[in-house]
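User: Before I run my own analysis I want an independent prediction to cross-check against. Here's the chain; please return only the structure tokens and, at the end, one sentence I can use as a sanity check.
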Amino acid sequence: MQISGTDVLKCMSCGRCSASCPHSGDAMQTMPHQFVALLKRGEVEKLTSSDFLWKCLSCFTCVERCPRGVKPAAIVEAARLMVIRQQGEAHISAGEIPELLDPELPQQLLVSVFRKYKA
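Assistant: Structure tokens:
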């Protein structure tokens, strides 16, 4: 993914990113290393529809733990932007956000997503 500025082919699927992810486990179906693997295989549809895409905290722990400098968080950020750009003018307005809040979503995630959605 060009817009992420990272080379996914460097990933050796060691799983350090997933092991250090504070939000991994039952909360997400797709782990950070699996997310990178989807991109490596060109499965963009699965990538952009993954629950991990919106549940990632963007804490960059995965970036710090990656021995190859793959930057999974940058890939997540780029995939989010890709989805938002595809939506075009059909994006969510700030007034609609409270209706959609899930009490289990971390506040850091909400701020990150709001930054991207604001017009």
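Sanity check: The mean pLDDT is 77.
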